[in-house]
Amino acid sequence: MKRFISLTLVFVLALLCFAGCSKTDDKTIKIGASPAPHAEILNLIKEDLAAKGYTLEIKEYSDYVLPNEDVESGDLDANYFQHTPYMENFNQNHNTHLKAVASIHYEPYCIYGSKTTSLENVPEGAKVLVPNDSTNEARALNLLQQVGLIKLKADAGIGATKNDIVENSHNLDIVEAEAAAIPRLMPDADFAIINGNYALAAGLDISKALAVEDASGDAAQTYANIVAVKSGNENLPKIQALIKALKSDDVKNFINEKYNGAVVAIF
């Protein structure tokens, strides 16, 4: 009988602990982000969320793979670093179940000069660095087409690859590299097309870019940076609280004042 009572008490205590832990977890938001601008923006809303009873834990990542894997595994509740085409491509290639729950900002793609400082005098065979993941490489190729350096097949769109180039009048040497590494590799290239967060982290000034992606079309919505969660978690109260805090006037004003057009709020 005593053993039965002891086991019952252990069981009850375990349940109470589980309930307590679950309650704590429900009030803790674990989110992965690139250091700039994503983590900077998230740090702004910590106090707002704390006032509503939530603790925001921000984990910074220097790559685009681990933050998605950690959301899928449950190590993170959400991440904030990518756009929807990248996420959808990642889901397809990694059998993950990520879902966009909010569009927060847009980072115009830019061409930054290195050995070549003007697009008016591009040398024959100029070396151009572009991201090596499929969605961002396509975006880079479309920017090269926008400024008239290459021409793509008419139906290439946001899935463009180097195989879709039908005109390359300067015989550009388009070199694929890991997005995070491109700022470091720039000295060996004529110019580079860099993801906005990595350009910010490298201290590059958008006002000195050789070209900026045209945001007048669908680019801002197509490539909006999103909050992503694992499918099924999008309606959790803490995720809704996170989205509400991010879509505040304080965040919009912070983005407009700090980033000088390198980051644009779209809510």
H-E order: HEHHEHEHEEEHEEEHEHEHEHHE
The average pLDDT score comes to 91
Total count of strands: 13
Q: What proportion of the residues is helical, as a percent range?
A: 40-55%
Biggest pleated-sheet summary: 6 strands, mixed
Q: What is the overall number of helices?
A: 11
User: What's the Cα radius of gyration?
Assistant: 22 Å
What's the arrangement of strands in the largest beta sheet? 2-1-3-12-4-13
Separation, N- and C-terminal Cα atoms: 63 Å
Backbone shape: globular
Spans where pLDDT lies below 50 across 5 or more residues: 4-24
Tell me the structural class: alpha/beta
β content, as a range? 15-25%
Structure description:
The chain is α/β, with parallel strands linked by helices and 267 residues long. 40% of the residues lie in helices and 23% in strands. It has a six-stranded mixed beta sheet with strand order 2-1-3-12-4-13, with helices on both faces. The longest helix has 25 residues. It is globular and about 60 Å long.
